[in-house]
Amino acid sequence: SFSLVPSIMHRLESLLLSVNLKHMILDHCPQNITIPTIKVLESITTKGCQENFDLESLETLGDSFLKYAASQQLFKTYQNDREGLLSVNKDKIISNLSLGKLGCDRKISGFIREESFDPKKWTITGDYSGNYFLNEELLFNKRSIYVGGTRKIDTEVVGDVVEALIGAFLSTGGELDAIYFMNWVGIEVDLDHIRYERHLQVQPEKLIDVGHLESLLDYKFCDPSLLVEALSHGSYIPGGYQ
Asked: Boundaries of each RNase III domain copy (predicted)?
């Protein structure tokens, strides 16, 4: 039935939109990184589209990995800074406002889908009748795309899509692929091993019952002082000069 044509064309247009975004991200990829087009489509589809899928699951995954990667990068880069300052710097990296600005700078905002499909409002591709015009726009990778107008998108929505794309790369290609996308979008992180060295001699057995806690956790700590650190709240005032 011809009544299905608008829905079929809408899905094809959505997939082509995802392909363009995928190529824009991967064109200068230094490694053999790839991602399924359907995952990109899921990442740019908001709940407002009322589809059977949306970005929320990938956004949650991407948000968690972003916090982990950003925290590790800060601990490695600023090893002598106190935790409070590191937390402030982390919040600047992972905030939706920062992610939204990065996404807009990379023109990800133009690929976001946030409206439900209405067959009655569907415009035939290539139809230049009426007031419908296409404008050419140059992307970062020197590719050209054609846009049919402008719209307003909340910066937080763009930030959510950036997180969803991180989750998409992570779920399909692992940590290195997610790191590649994060660096491409402007979040400079890596996952090099952090050497954790303790400069003070600590006797954890004088502070807590290490053996009892290890038996409860069914885990043997190579460095029991880490257990003391994990159980010490910031409000605790030790007997030393601090």
From this structure: 50-174
Q: pTM for the complete prediction?
A: 0.72
Q: Start-end ranges of CATH 1.10.1520.10 in the chain?
A: 2-185
Q: How many CB atoms lie within 10 A of CB 224?
A: 19
> End-to-end distance of the chain based on CA atoms, in angstroms?
78
C-alpha dihedral (103, 107, 108, 113), degrees to nearest 10: 130
d(CA 150, CA 7): 23
Task: Tell me the fold of 2-185.
Answer: Ribonuclease iii, N-terminal Endonuclease Domain; Chain A (1.10.1520)
In 3-state terms, the chain is what percent helix, strand and coil (to 5)? 55, 5, 40
